Amino acid sequence: MLSRPLGDYLSALRDATPLVHCITNYVAMNSTANLLLATGASPAMLHAQEEVAEFTAISGALSINIGTLSAHWADAMLIAARTAQEQHIPWVLDPVAVGATAFRQQLCSALLVHQPSVIRGNASEIQALNGLAGQGRGVDATASTHEAAAAAISLAQQYRCVVAVTGEEDFITNGTDHYRLKGGHPLMPRVTTLGCGLSALVAGFVAANRTQPLEASLAALACFSIAGSRAGQQAQGPGSFQVALLDALYQLTPEDLSTIAQMEAVHAV
Amino acid sequence: MLSRPLGDYLSALRDATPLVHCITNYVAMNSTANLLLATGASPAMLHAQEEVAEFTAISGALSINIGTLSAHWADAMLIAARTAQEQHIPWVLDPVAVGATAFRQQLCSALLVHQPSVIRGNASEIQALNGLAGQGRGVDATASTHEAAAAAISLAQQYRCVVAVTGEEDFITNGTDHYRLKGGHPLMPRVTTLGCGLSALVAGFVAANRTQPLEASLAALACFSIAGSRAGQQAQGPGSFQVALLDALYQLTPEDLSTIAQMEAVHAV
Amino acid sequence: MLSRPLGDYLSALRDATPLVHCITNYVAMNSTANLLLATGASPAMLHAQEEVAEFTAISGALSINIGTLSAHWADAMLIAARTAQEQHIPWVLDPVAVGATAFRQQLCSALLVHQPSVIRGNASEIQALNGLAGQGRGVDATASTHEAAAAAISLAQQYRCVVAVTGEEDFITNGTDHYRLKGGHPLMPRVTTLGCGLSALVAGFVAANRTQPLEASLAALACFSIAGSRAGQQAQGPGSFQVALLDALYQLTPEDLSTIAQMEAVHAV
């Protein structure tokens, strides 16, 4: 089913150490940078309207997360997304809490015009983004991944992009091909901004594997899934989990990823 | 003395997983979110003037911390505080370094008009807020908790709220009833923004226990006190302390809290 | 060669616990505060134009890092730097990714007018700052420390300041006297913003040792070098490394620093 072993995508990431331009929320900045560095990408956070276009243009990928939005940042996000579109640089949209306020909905609508390569969110966010009944009260997922699969496929077809719904079970689609992925650990939602970091990691994988955005994104999800499971085995709580997750991402091998695919932990829908 | 065992307040927090709208400083955002998630609340950080009123209105509580203040954020804090007051949503004020600059004093004066449910600060901040001789040079506590008790009682009576002074020893009052609480660990001031996180945790406890703001706030302080002591027993320094603190908050049981009360680690003044 | 044992500078830091006013990037704020607290300084992050002059004036030192720059912040950095210059308060410039965009180059040029006491950057940044062929693509060092030594000496002479180039090998100079320092660990570049934190720590050391900025800065670098080596010995990856680094900085003794100097781990060029 996969065109290449999943581990090849991790090898490509580490060979390229792609520069990922992150315009992300304040809560996630430090943990996102550390997640990327641990796995093998090179993060850079900057957001000034005076320089985002210049910087996006020299980046391997762009990752936009609207978590702690404000008007100036929204303007910068739009400039960066337009630059990415014009320069054919892959970019990822993480529509945090898009269902919660009108301000977020308006920005996401404007961002979608610039055709993200990948959208990653929790089930509530993907449903809200697709215009379905948004049940999201905030940043947590209250809808299940299963319920959001139809919304994800619809979004992927409408915007010709990859859509990843992550949660207890992940679902990822390009509108035609779909995968489900289990793994991770129940402590993951008890550590803040892991999903935000995953969005940026997806950007890194797609930067290093531009011809295969679906499989590259799946590889990023598989990294979190395997590393999360391993971290959970030795964690005493969310503090030690976060430490162990960074270590596990660093220690992860391409063989680990290829194995998970062969073991059919990844299923076609 | 307590109307219910202290552990009941923790049970209520975990049952409700209240959404805590945090408008807090950049330094504290990540650690505050993790402290809330570890204990059992659900944090959300957002601050745009375009959306704070909308979001405060759907939150269980609001927590405002003025640490890395700027003019736009000050405006948003005032909108959110007014919304909380109008909608009868509990809110907590953390007046970081209020004694250090005129800008902070002016904002805190304006925020107090909207009647916070709880004020939490270190001794220097509580004294400065009460208009007493501010000795605060910055974000550290240089006054002792003992010296700040009178200021806390005065503030609590003037604004009809709970005031918590935290430090080596904590003091908490609603103007009529007072408690002292020992515990914690000398490494706590060597980890940044634990006090900021505690303010947000107080907001979570009050959200889940709205009829008893004094005892709910005391329960939050007791969580930090017990978890801090336990983390200190296994820490090698501030790095491992922070990790162990999150694990200890996650592992904390209602019985742990009730026991500390019965053991009279909490004393009426 | 050294006027005092290197450990004396650490003793002075811990005796003075200098207040370090940090205007730094969002990614680095939390980790910088923790690095300073672990070692023995007292950090404070604030950046509003309304209050930076007032706060810089009561600080022991100022540390400016341009990582996540924007126009408002640039204005505040200039106010703070001018205040430091006027009040003879030592200040440190960390010119993150100065070679990447015109916006950064313009700001750094304007900041240099206010005569920093110390400039700390990676090799790419120091070369870009000196107007040499900037090869920096972002926040990572792609030039070697060795190649940047000439640029560092040139900058130090031009601005009469200390210049520190850090990386696998550190080079530090005041234009006349130079030191090289090895140590640290290969995991250090896999943890985000350690360099940013080091800049602020340099500010703390210079605040506590104002008459000897070169040796004080060298002591800060030596702390990172020794603590980094020790942390690396017990780390399983970047997550546990960061935890162990904070613990090691906390546990570091003046004797540790004096020993590294006697062992000639520090060499005059």
UniProtKB/TrEMBL annotation, chains A, B, C:
Cofactor(s) required, per the database record: Mg(2+)
UniProt-listed InterPro entries: Hyethyz_kinase (IPR000417), Ribokinase-like (IPR029056)
Catalytic activity from the UniProt record: 5-(2-hydroxyethyl)-4-methylthiazole + ATP = 4-methyl-5-(2-phosphooxyethyl)-thiazole + ADP + H(+)
Pfam families named in the record: HK
Gene Ontology molecular function terms on file: ATP binding; hydroxyethylthiazole kinase activity; magnesium ion binding
Domain of life of the source: Bacteria
Sequence positions that bind ATP: 120, 166
Pathway: Cofactor biosynthesis; thiamine diphosphate biosynthesis; 4-methyl-5-(2-phosphoethyl)-thiazole from 5-(2-hydroxyethyl)-4-methylthiazole: step 1/1
GO biological process, any: thiamine biosynthetic process
Signal peptide start-end: none
Entry's EC annotation: 2.7.1.50
Transmembrane segments: none
Keywords, comma-separated and alphabetical: ATP-binding, Kinase, Magnesium, Metal-binding, Nucleotide-binding, Thiamine biosynthesis, Transferase
Residues the record lists as binding substrate: 45
Keyword Membrane tagged: no
This protein's record includes keyword ATP-binding: yes
Function, as annotated: Catalyzes the phosphorylation of the hydroxyl group of 4-methyl-5-beta-hydroxyethylthiazole (THZ).
Family, per entry: Belongs to the Thz kinase family.
Name by which UniProt lists this protein: Hydroxyethylthiazole kinase
Lineage summary: Bacteria, Pseudomonadati, Pseudomonadota, Gammaproteobacteria, Oceanospirillales
